[in-house]
Amino acid sequence: MLWPQAVKDRIKTGHDRELVHSYPYRSACPSTVWAELVEGATEELFLAGYTNYFFWTQVPRFSEAVRRKAESGCRVRFLLGDPGGEITRQREAIEDVALSVSTRIRISVEHLDRIGAVPGLEVRYSCADDAVNHVSLSVFRFDQEALVTPHLARLVGHDSPLLHLRRQGAGGMFDRFAEHSEELWSRAVPVG
């Protein structure tokens, strides 16, 4: 027998191959992973976290990278929660932290405003009907890879788990999360 059962049990097959790594906390994912994924994206950088605030603290010279990516033809999209929305207010009450959800969103918008109007860079707020689905799941796409955070009940994003996915074929976990974020994007409203 070429492949003993012990080996077969350890080999990833099918859609399981899409899981590159899992982290019990988003904050446990090394900053080098985030930076490498941002730098490596050439076609699609879609950041669909509710605040996306941490990118400016996690990735060195992130604003420069965003501008450079967009100017080089990479499609760069940010999907944010509405800082004045009801779901944002509810989430702030749940988290009960000094750096509120609306403040984190506004900081992201401020950084994006400083980048200015660059073709290929789009920023939207999720629509009110989708906000509850957006606040509970962050999907960050970098071409054919994604970092996904399913937010746990009363925890801030950095305390929730994170999955690193790499697309291996149609219909896998990567595609399912990508479709989710695209659906939210399709009904989102432009910022500004």
Topology:
Elements: H1 5-8, E1 19-23, H2 31-40, E2 44-48, H3 55-58, H4 62-71, E3 75-80, H5 86-95, H6 101-115, E4 121-125, H7 131-135, E5 137-142, E6 145-150, E7 162-166, H8 173-187, E8 189-190
Parallel strand pairs: 2-3, 3-4
Antiparallel strand pairs: 1-7, 2-5, 4-8, 5-6, 6-7
Structural commentary:
With 192 residues, the chain is of the alpha+beta class. Helix content is 38%, strand content 21%. The protein contains 8 helices and 8 strands, in the order αβαβααβααβαβββαβ. The protein has helices at residues 5-8, 31-40, 55-58, 62-71, 86-95, 101-115, 131-135, 173-187, and strands at residues 19-23, 44-48, 75-80, 121-125, 137-142, 145-150, 162-166, 189-190. Strands 1-7-6-5-2-3-4-8 form an 8-stranded mixed sheet, with helices on both faces. β5 and β6 (145-150) form a beta hairpin. α4 (62-71) crosses α6. It is globular, with a radius of gyration of 17 Å. It starts with a helix and ends with a strand.
Q: Number of helical segments?
A: 8
β-sheet strand percentage:
15-25%
What gross morphology would you assign? globular
Portion of residues within helices: 25-40%
How large is the radius of gyration? 17 Å
Spatial order of strands in the largest sheet? 1-7-6-5-2-3-4-8
Largest sheet: 8 strands, mixed
Compressed to H and E, one letter per element, the order equals: HEHEHHEHHEHEEEHE
Low-confidence stretches: none
Distance between the termini: 64 Å
Mean pLDDT reading? 91
The chain-level structural class is alpha+beta
Label this structure with key terms.
single chain, about 190 residues, alpha+beta, 8 helices, globular
